Amino acid sequence: MKSVGLRPPRLVRLLLSRSTLRKLFILLLLWSIVEAHLVYYQIARSQREFEAQETTLHSPTRVFIASLHWNNENILRTDWNKGVIDLVKALGEENVFVSVYESGSWDDSKGALRELDGQLAKLGVGRKIVLDDTTHEELLQSSPGSEGWIKVQSGELSGRNAPRRIPYLSRLRNLSLQPLLELAENGTRFDHVLFLGDVVFNVGF
After folding, report:
1. What is the count of structural domains for the chain?
2. Which domain holds residue 181?
3. Are 200 and 83 in contact (CB under 8 A)?
4. What does the radius of gyration of the chain's CA atoms come to, in whole angstroms?
């Protein structure tokens, strides 16, 4: 009885042929080359991004800090002044200018801001802290400007002229920014302008 050997399937024979193996080897080699280039470009890009980040982190960032205050003695003494000092130290005393405008407070906001001024002076920080003695009543008694004033229709001030809130605050904001223009004329530039409100904040980095 004659035995018949089992022949490998056609697909197996095709895969085992020299030409097929050669083609698979070439494809594997090409893929390895492409993959190596992709990895190289990813590493190179990551390196460039890291170097750019390092340059940014180590380059001094100059910040102009501005703020407006009215009757804020409590928060100034308990949290705000300390927050400003911590922020200045984090950014670098030589990289910061602090501009504060206070007007018409009837509490001791002026005293609290004088304390801040003294602390900033000890650190050698550039600053301009304006304490305006003009009261709200004196403001109401002044001649109304051509814009930004309205005649109050009801309430305690009914029938009197009073400054509109937004234009009034915009004027004070511009006064707090005045040192920015003065410094620019002397060649001092800043990367950022930071407005701080009369709220509790802390340095988170």
Report:
1. 2
2. 62-196
3. yes
4. 35
Distance from C-alpha of 75 to C-alpha of 81, rounded to nearest angstrom: 8
Residues 6+ apart with CB under 8 A from 157: 140
For residues 169 and 69, state if they share a domain: yes
115 and 144 Cβ atoms separated by less than 8 Å: no
Decide if 123 is inside a domain: yes
Q: Bridge partners of 129? A: 100
* Residues 76-116 pLDDT 10s: 999 999 999 999 999 999 999 999 999 888 899 999 999 99
pTM, to two decimals: 0.62
Dump pLDDT digits (tens) for 23-44. 777 888 888 888 877 878 788 7
Are residues 173 and 115 both part of a single domain? yes
**β-bridge partners, 195:** 66
